[in-house]
Amino acid sequence: LKAVTAIQLARRLRDQRIAAVPVFWVEAEDHDWAEVRSTKVIDREGAVAAVTAADVPGAGSLPVARLTFDAGIAQTLSELRDRLPATEFTDETIASLEHRYRAGAPVGRAFAGWIEDLLGRHGLVVFEADDPTLKPVVRDLFAHELAGRPAARLAREQAGVMRSLGHAPQVETTEDGVSVFYVDAAGRRAIRVKDGQYLVGDQLRPVEDVRAEALDHPERFSPNVLLRPLVQDRLFPTACYVGGPAELAYQAQIGPLYREFGVEAPLLYSRGSATIVDGGAARFLDRSGLPLESLQPQDDGTLNRLLQEHLPGGVERTLAEINEIIATRVTALGQAVSPIDPTLSGAVDTTAERMRETLKTLQNKIVQAAKRKDETLRRQFTRTRALVFPDGDPQERALGIAFFVNRYGPALGDRLLDVLPVETDKHYVLVL
To answer: How much of the chain, in percent, has pLDDT values that exceed 90?
Structure first.
């Protein structure tokens, strides 16, 4: 969705005779292996299933760009094939993944290559952040941070401003934190202040020594989440940055950093937000009249209410009438027994409450019977809920792109470019 929005914006600018290129930044210097090792799909049974790659040497410590798939990735793709519902595009989808995700392939490059396969023909430039040739261009940013840690300081100050305005800051920096990592054969390590020097791993080094190394060997350093946007915008003359909600929230905290480091800040634009449904799910939503958000809870509350609405009118009407009779007659009974013994009023109320509970139990039994009888409605509800809110999460943050390419084919990107509105102030339901 980010890539599609960027392509759309670049097209809009080109229509205005402004040269623009959409760039997809692959942050492969991150070492969060757990975040990238899995993907989720809706399996052949209509359930949410996770497919996870086995750990590779260096996983969790080395940047993702320095990780390489071993022979186990073939088994992972085989499991993916077994999980995916068979479609006319399954063979092509798995073949395209096998071309990129194979033994010996760097993890970051596999992802970058597949994104390029899907959207490169639309002019999308896929850029891998671990490219060593980029580091000399931004060495001054690393050196400036290492000289006095202005990014960490300004981020703390801006966090206080955000809290005073009722917003939670995205980054909580520490007093000893530095917004640059050190990268060597051991992995990507934090740099911290200790006794007026920098602690890199278990080695204590003078500040000027580390700063000089950043100037001489910038390839050994990597920006953290605060400096990363500035590195991006120093490398590319970014007219507009397309991000999700969390990424745009980061921008609210790093505005002062752009001025401090002398980098031009880009305009900001929210990526498209959409839930993709097929014809079956669309027809169910139309017939049921259920708001999309009502499917997010993972209990049976919405389904029970839907089934109650489909009960024969006589059942609902009779239950309502009984409840009304109980309320009316209990009031009359309470008034009648009060002159006999005022303490009996409590017993009358207790008896009435038991009657209501018994009636509620009967109503639930009727609903359960309706569930058993109307398996089609239950199946349609369960399938649609799993598709739009897998495990209760928004679809766009849960299901991997492989699921949709398997369902709609490699032309998925083309279709999204055609139907996803460029105006991103709303969440859209797209029927494909």
So the answer is: 71
Q: 142, 111, 342: which is closest to 234 by C-alpha? A: 142
- H helix or E strand, kind and range, residue 270: strand 267-270
Question: What per-residue confidence (pLDDT) applies to 370?
Answer: 65
Count of H-run helices and E-run strands, the chain: 17, 13
SS3 state at 198: strand
Is the model's pLDDT at 383 over the cut of 80?
yes
Please give the pLDDT value at position 313: 62
206: CB partners within 8 A, 6+ apart: 197, 198
DSSP state of 218: G
Scored b (16 or more CB within 10 A) or e, 159-177 reads beebeeeeeebbbebeeeb
SS3 165: coil
Instruction: To the nearest 10°, report the CA torsion of 367, 368, 372, 375.
Output: 60
Six-digit token pair at 301? Answer: 């509350």
Whether pLDDT at 145 is above 70: yes
CA atoms within 13 A on the CB side of 420: 25
Q: What's the DSSP call for residue 223?
A: E
pLDDT tens per residue across span 192-228? 999 999 999 889 999 999 999 999 999 999 999 999 9
Would you state the pLDDT for residue 231?
A: 96
Q: Do the strands 38-42 and 48-52 form a parallel or antiparallel pair, or are they unpaired?
A: antiparallel
Terminal-residue alpha carbon distance, the chain: 15
* Side chain identity at residue 421, one-letter code: P
Residue 266 DSSP one-character state: P
- What per-residue confidence (pLDDT) applies to 338? 77
